[in-house]
User: Which sequence fits this backbone?
């Protein structure tokens, strides 16, 4: 088991134009003070920029990270999203200094912490980086307070620092308890308190909510989100859950096979995935086969071109270079189903209905293509019903058609 220690001198970071957000959740507000001019202070370090340049790492012959570069703004939250084994934890461990890369550089607030070529390797305990591990890594034989104090230097005020960190995560008064007597959500908060107690300038969270059941995960995630936004600590967190990446991340870095496939805001990522792998990994995707046709003067669709598909013409956001045959990205909520009529014949048949309460997904077979269509209404059609599928979105992304 690895645990980081940090040097613990503290500075007061002053954050303007952002208001405390904890009022909506159950965590007590102990670290902030609202000034008369509306700004607020937080006991912690100044948020720092994190820069990762061309980091590569192999274990034996297995390349795990390949030329990874990432720029993270001070005080922002960045999600590293990717499937199991794509190198997320390895990248976090390299930023923390727990693993050394084969090549590349890590810089925090302009200070080079790792530079393989220059032989720089600042030890983990001198990086002022806090980390919450994938399994939380609490010491079972130490009390909650001693777990939190683990990374702090032994000083007269370290007990107060521990109390303050526990209060921040809503666990005041539980310092004497043993980890095994706490719920999963409380243990998760102890791990977070341990990471933030030394007031790190950067926080790394490795799938911090994955050990919690669904309802608790949503609650704890929302509380931790509010706390981290208030503290304004630059945070990089790992997840393989797209919803979590979207809810928490100011930016999302999608990783695939040791490479960064795309870095963008959640909305940009959802609307304009860089390639078809990202399109299908992030959110639900229909990829409709289509033939590109330039928009003539009589066309009514917007965009530089349309693709003729099984559900009609879909406007395209851009033309894939050199491809006449394309796969058009259509999200289920961009489609709708209606009953056919003599003037609008059916384009498909409903083969499955998934009712989620807040919406209904129809799986429609349209000329051999299976389409997912999301409607907010209660189910209006049954299995076997013929339906008309319409596209109701803006200009769509298209990728060169994949040969079957
Ligand atoms: N110390 C190590 N020695 C050998 N191989 C390793 C080591 N650490 C990681 N790996 C391998 O590197 C690859 C990436 O591992 P990593 O833990 O970074 O993935 P991950 O994206 O965090 O996955 P998960 O979502 O399952 O946690 C995996 O194939 C893993 O087996
Ligand atoms: Mg991992």
Assistant:
């Amino acid at each position: 088991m690895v645990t980081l220690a940090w040097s613990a001198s503290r500075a007061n970071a002053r954050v303007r134009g952002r208001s405390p957000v904890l009022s909506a959740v159950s965590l007590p507000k102990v670290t902030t003070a609202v000034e008369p001019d509306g700004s607020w202070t937080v006991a912690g370090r100044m948020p720092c920029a994190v820069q990762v340049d061309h980091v590569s790492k192999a274990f034996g012959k297995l390349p795990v990270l390949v030329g990874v570069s990432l720029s993270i703004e001070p005080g922002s939250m960045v999600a590293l999203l990717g499937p199991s084994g794509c190198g997320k934890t390895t990248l976090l461990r390299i930023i923390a200094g727990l693993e050394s890369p084969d090549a590349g550089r890590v810089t925090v607030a302009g200070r080079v912490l790792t530079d393989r070529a220059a032989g720089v390797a600042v030890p983990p305990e001198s990086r002022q980086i806090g980390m919450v591990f994938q399994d939380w890594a609490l010491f079972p034989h130490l009390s909650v307070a001693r777990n939190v104090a683990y990374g702090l230097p032994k000083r007269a005020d370290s007990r107060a620092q521990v109390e303050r960190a526990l209060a921040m995560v809503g666990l005041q008064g539980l310092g004497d308890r043993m980890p095994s007597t706490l719920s999963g959500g409380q243990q998760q908060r102890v791990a977070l308190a341990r990471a933030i107690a030394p007031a790190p300038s950067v926080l790394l969270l490795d799938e911090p909510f994955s050990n919690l059941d669904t309802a608790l995960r949503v609650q704890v995630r929302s509380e931790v989100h509010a706390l981290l936004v208030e503290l304004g600590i630059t945070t990089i967190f790992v997840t393989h859950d797209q919803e979590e990446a979207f809810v928490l991340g100011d930016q999302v870095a999608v990783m695939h096979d040791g490479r960064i496939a795309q870095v963008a805001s959640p909305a940009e990522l959802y609307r304009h995935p860089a390639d078809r792998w990202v399109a299908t990994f992030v959110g639900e995707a229909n990829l409709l086969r289509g033939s590109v046709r330039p928009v003539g003067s009589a066309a009514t669709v917007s965009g530089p071109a349309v693709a003729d598909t099984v559900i009609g013409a879909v406007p395209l956001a851009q033309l894939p270079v050199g491809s006449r045959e394309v796969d058009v990205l259509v999200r289920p909520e961009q489609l709708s189903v209606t009953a056919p009529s003599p003037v609008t014949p059916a384009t498909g048949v409903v083969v499955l209905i998934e009712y989620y309460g807040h919406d209904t997904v129809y799986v429609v077979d349209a000329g051999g293509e299976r389409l997912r269509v999301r409607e907010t209404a209660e189910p209006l059609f049954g299995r076997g019903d013929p339906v008309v599928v319409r596209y109701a979105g803006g200009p769509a992304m298209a990728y060169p058609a994949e040969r079957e």
Q: What stands out?
A: The CA atoms of residues 100 and 317 lie 42 Å apart. The chain has two domains: 12-271, 284-400. Residues 59, 64, 82, 84-90, 240 surround adenosine-5'-triphosphate (ligand 1) (CB under 6 Å).
